[in-house]
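Make up an example, fold above all:
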Amino acid sequence: ALYVSMKVGITSKTDPSKALLLDTGAQHWEQMRHKDSSNGTDDTTPFKRMPFVAAEMPKLRAEGYDLCATGDALRAAAVQDPKIWEHVEEISVYARMAPEDKERVIRALRERGQHTLMCGDGANDVGALKQAHVGVALLSGFGSANTAKDGEKALEEESAEERKKRQAQAKLRAVQKAGEAKAQAQKDKAELQELQKKWYEEELAKLEAKGEQWAQFKAMKIAVGRLVEEQKKRVAARGGAGG
């Protein structure tokens, strides 16, 4: 993706080292040195690292860097620093994106007031195509069909096949996502219960040490407040309640 983006002018053609790739763990931006191999593949080697801080992304862009991220890195970044969704327009190249990653980026761009166009050529692009202001779906050719009538027939057959495939994939993703969400909810519930208990005991000890009246009630109120805030943080870290 970096090689292609350089060739078509999305990233710098004159200084390829200006490309910064967010590492999978979203801890650093890795400055890449491109080695244009004879077979046209993208051979890159990191030779400098910069800490990842979402708020610093506009500054890096202003300094002439081209920011690049994969779907895995983007998801990790959202956990590390949810403010990355406020700076998605600073990223020039997105690569190896899952369907839900594409949708989330398009949605974030729209929320930022950007006008969006999505161009896709497969069933895994359907969600993002729908999210964009303008969706351009690319279709394969009609083989040896030479007439409009034959072409229309081939298009109908292809569309039905693609639709069936897309629906099956969407159903599978929905089942997987539901299972993951259920497992995460159970994990969160256990963790939050432990945190609430810890916070309650800490606050109760403080209040009793001060001789406060209704110490138990006040401690529980504070613990519940912290619990609500923690839940909000976790939702935001995963891209929002709707995302």
